C-alpha cells in the first residue's frame, strides 16, 4: 500500500477502499496524523490573518477527530455489507467554515460566532454524509469570507498568501490533510486560492449547488464548489453535491449533474483566449502560460483571442456584494455583536454600514449594468465552448494586511483595477469555472489557468481540465512543506 | 443639513462631494447616520473616520455607475422566477 495515502486522489483512494485493501478508518487515521503533526492544535480561530501561527498550516479551525473516526468505522461496516454506495464513501473531507455542520462548531471565521454550534447540516454536508464521506474538519476561512485575507498558510511557502476566503480548504487539499474539500465563491474565492496553492478548484454554475445552511455573503452571487488534487475528483464531488433544493430557491430544476468519467476529446473545441490578461503577466510567467495554451492546441483545441467590453466591472461587483452583505449582516449591527469583529475587518464593517444606507436606485442600477455584462457573456459563449485567462497573472505574493473591498485580491501593480476581468464577467454571469495548475513562477510558486465554461456545461470544463492534467502533470507536484530544511 | 432628510438627497451630496473634492463632508455622513436612527457604534471618532472613508468609497462607485449609460429596456438582473 502507498505510504503517502494522503496525497492519493479520491479516485485512487476509492479504488483501494472498494477493493478492501484500504479501510476508511486507516485512511482517516492517516489524515488525523497529518493534521496533528502539520496543522494547528489545539485548533482555534486565529487572532488575525497577520498573526503567523508558527510553522503550522492553520488549515483547520475545528477538528472533528472523534466524529471522523466513528463515521469511518460506520463506513467500513456499510462497505463490508453492501459495497461502497458512492466514490466518496469512506473518504475524509473538510468544508469551509461557512457551512453548517450539525453539532460541530461553525464560526464563519469570526469571534462573533466563536461558540456557534448549529443543530443542522448544510445541504451540501447532508449530501456528502448521504454519500458516505467522512467529515474531518471545518476549514479555516477569513472572517465572514473576507476575500484576500490570508489565515491559512500557503504550503509552498509559509510567508506567501493563500489569496482568498477558501484558504483553509485549498491549503488543506494541497498539503494532504484532507481527501477533498468544499469551498465557496462570490467573486473568486475558490479559483484564486486554488491558484495560489496549486489546487484544482471548480466553481459551479450559479444555481447548481444548494446554499442552504451556508453563510450568505451575496445572495445573487454566492456559489459552492469542490476543491481537490485532480479535476477528475472535482467531477466526482460535484456529482454528489449538485441538485435542486427547495430550501434554496436559487437552485434550478436542472441542477443535478451526472459526471461522465471518460473525457470527450478536445479536437475542434473553440477556446476564446482573453489575451489582455496574459499580457499583463511578467515575462517568465507569460512563457509558462504560453506553454499551457500550446498544450491545449496540441490536444486539438482551436484558440482565438477575445476582448471584453468596457464596463464598470469592479464598481458593479463591489456595490452588489456590499449591499447584499450589509443586508445579510444587519442584525449583528443592531445587537452590537459587530463590535467583536477582528480589527483587520473594521474597514469592511464600515463599508457594510455605508452600503446599507445607499439608495435602492443605485443597487438596481448596478444590477442593470450587471445584466449588460450577462448579455455580453452569453453572446461571447455562443461563439466559444470555453474562454480562458490566467487565474492570477503572478504567483502568490507575501502575506500582508487585507484590503478593502476584500474580494477579489488586489491587482498587481500597474494593471487596471478591473483585472482579472474575465473573472468578474464569469462570476456576475453565473458561469462555471475551474482553476487548474499550469506551472510555476520564478520563485517556485504555482501558476494556474482559469477556464470559464457555458452555463450548465461543467462537463466540458472537466473534459478540458482532465485532458490537460493527463498531458502535463502539474497538479501532481507536491509542496516541499514539511520536508524543507 | 436638517433639510437633507431623504437618503437619496444625501447620497447626491456625497457623490457631488467626492467628484469635487475627493472626500465627503462630516456633515453629510452625520446626516446619513441621523436618518437611519443615530450613530450607533460610529459615534466613536475613529470609527466615524472609517465610516466617512467608506461613504467616500461608496459614493465614488455610485458616481461611476450613475455616469454609465444603460438602455432603458435593460432590466436589473434580480431574476425572480417560478419554475
Structure in a nutshell:
The complex is a heterodimer of chains A (485) and B (83). Chain A is an alpha/beta fold and 485 residues long.
Question: Which bin fits the share of residues in helices of chain B?
Answer: 55-70%
Global geometry of chain B: globular
* Structural Rg of chain B: 16 Å
The main β sheet of chain A shows up as: 11 strands, mixed
Q: Helical amount among residues of chain A, as a percent range? A: 25-40%
On the 0 to 100 scale, the average pLDDT of chain A is 91
- Largest interface, counted by CB within 8 Å of the partner chain's CB: A-B, 42 and 32 residues
Low confidence ranges of chain A: 401-406
Termini separation of chain A comes to: 28 Å
Please give the largest β-sheet of chain B.
none
Order of helices and strands of chain B: HHH
What is the spatial order of strands in the main beta sheet of chain A?
A: 1-3-2-4-6-5-10-11-9-7-8
Subunit arrangement of the protein? heterodimer
Average pLDDT score of chain B: 89
Secondary structure topology:
The complex is a heterodimer of chains A (485) and B (83).
Chain A: H1 10-18, H2 24-38, E1 60-63, H3 65-82, E2 92-96, H4 123-130, E3 134-139, H5 167-175, E4 180-185, H6 191-197, E5 200-203, E6 223-228, H7 231-241, E7 270-273, H8 275-279, H9 283-298, E8 302-305, H10 313-328, H11 330-334, H12 346-357, H13 360-383, E9 386-390, H14 421-429, E10 433-440, E11 446-453, H15 458-472
Parallel strand pairs in A: 2-3, 2-4, 7-8, 7-9
Antiparallel strand pairs in A: 1-3, 4-6, 5-6, 5-10, 9-11, 10-11
Chain B: H1 7-21, H2 26-35, H3 45-67
Helix pairs in contact in B: 1-2, 1-3
Amino acid at each position: 500500500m502507498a505510504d503517502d495515502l494522503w496525497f492519493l486522489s479520491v479516485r485512487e483512494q476509492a479504488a483501494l477502499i472498494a477493493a478492501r485493501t484500504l479501510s476508511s478508518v486507516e485512511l482517516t487515521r492517516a489524515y488525523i496524523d497529518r493534521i496533528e503533526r502539520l496543522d494547528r492544535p489545539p485548533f482555534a480561530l486565529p487572532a488575525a490573518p497577520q498573526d503567523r501561527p508558527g510553522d503550522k498550516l492553520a488549515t483547520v479551525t475545528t477538528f472533528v477527530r472523534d466524529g471522523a473516526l466513528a463515521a469511518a468505522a460506520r463506513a467500513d461496516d456499510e462497505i463490508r455489507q453492501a459495497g461502497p454506495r458512492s466514490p466518496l464513501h469512506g473518504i475524509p473531507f473538510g468544508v469551509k467554515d461557512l457551512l453548517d455542520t450539525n453539532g460541530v462548531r461553525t464560526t464563519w471565521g469570526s469571534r462573533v460566532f466563536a461558540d456557534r454550534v448549529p443543530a443542522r447540516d448544510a445541504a451540501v454536508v447532508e449530501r456528502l454524509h448521504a454519500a458516505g464521506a467522512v467529515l474531518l474538519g471545518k476549514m479555516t476561512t477569513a472572517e465572514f469570507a473576507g476575500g484576500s485575507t490570508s489565515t491559512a498558510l500557503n504550503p509552498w511557502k509559509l510567508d506567501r498568501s493563500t489569496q482568498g476566503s477558501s484558504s483553509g480548504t485549498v491549503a488543506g487539499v494541497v498539503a494532504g490533510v484532507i481527501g477533498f474539500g468544499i469551498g465557496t465563491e462570490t467573486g473568486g474565492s475558490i479559483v484564486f486560492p486554488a491558484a495560489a496553492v496549486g489546487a484544482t478548484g471548480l466553481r459551479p454554475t450559479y444555481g447548481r449547488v444548494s446554499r442552504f445552511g451556508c453563510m450568505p455573503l451575496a445572495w445573487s452571487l454566492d456559489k459552492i464548489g469542490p476543491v481537490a488534487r485532480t479535476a477528475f475528483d472535482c467531477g466526482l464531488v460535484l456529482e454528489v453535491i449538485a441538485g435542486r433544493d427547495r430550501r434554496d430557491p436559487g437552485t434550478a430544476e436542472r441542477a443535478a449533474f451526472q459526471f461522465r468519467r471518460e473525457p470527450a476529446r478536445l479536437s475542434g473545441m473553440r477556446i476564446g483566449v482573453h489575451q489582455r490578461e496574459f499580457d499583463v503577466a511578467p515575462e517568465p510567467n507569460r512563457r509558462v502560460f504560453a506553454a499551457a495554451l500550446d498544450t491545449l492546441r496540441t490536444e486539438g483545441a482551436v484558440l482565438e483571442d477575445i476582448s471584453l467590453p468596457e464596463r464598470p466591472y469592479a464598481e458593479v461587483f463591489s456595490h452588489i456584494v456590499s449591499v447584499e452583505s450589509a443586508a445579510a449582516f444587519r442584525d449583528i449591527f443592531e445587537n452590537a455583536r459587530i463590535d467583536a469583529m477582528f480589527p483587520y475587518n473594521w474597514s469592511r464593517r464600515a463599508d457594510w454600514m455605508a452600503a446599507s444606507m445607499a439608495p435602492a436606485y443605485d443597487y438596481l442600477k448596478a444590477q442593470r449594468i450587471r445584466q449588460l455584462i450577462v448579455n455580453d457573456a452569453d453572446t461571447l459563449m455562443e461563439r466559444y465552448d470555453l474562454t480562458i485567462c490566467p487565474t492570477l497573472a503572478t504567483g502568490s505574493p507575501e502575506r500582508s494586511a487585507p484590503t478593502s473591498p476584500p474580494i477579489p485580491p488586489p491587482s498587481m501593480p500597474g494593471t487596471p483595477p478591473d483585472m482579472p476581468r474575465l473573472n468578474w464577467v464569469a462570476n456576475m454571469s453565473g458561469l462555471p469555472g475551474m482553476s487548474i495548475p499550469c506551472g510555476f513562477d520564478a520563485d517556485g510558486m504555482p501558476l494556474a489557468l482559469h477556464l470559464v465554461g457555458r452555463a450548465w456545461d461543467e462537463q466540458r470544463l472537466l473534459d478540458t481540465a482532465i485532458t490537460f492534467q493527463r498531458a502535463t502533470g502539474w497538479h501532481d507536484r507536491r509542496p516541499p512543506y514539511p520536508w524543507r530544511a | 443639513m436638517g433639510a437633507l432628510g431623504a437618503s437619496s438627497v444625501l447620497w447626491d451630496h456625497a457623490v457631488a462631494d467626492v467628484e469635487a473634492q475627493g472626500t465627503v463632508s462630516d456633515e453629510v455622513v452625520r446626516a446619513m447616520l441621523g436618518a437611519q436612527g443615530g450613530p450607533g457604534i460610529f459615534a466613536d471618532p475613529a470609527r466615524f473616520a472609517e465610516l466617512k472613508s467608506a461613504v467616500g468609497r461608496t459614493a465614488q462607485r455610485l458616481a461611476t455607475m450613475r455616469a454609465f449609460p444603460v438602455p432603458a429596456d435593460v432590466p436589473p438582473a434580480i431574476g425572480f422566477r417560478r419554475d
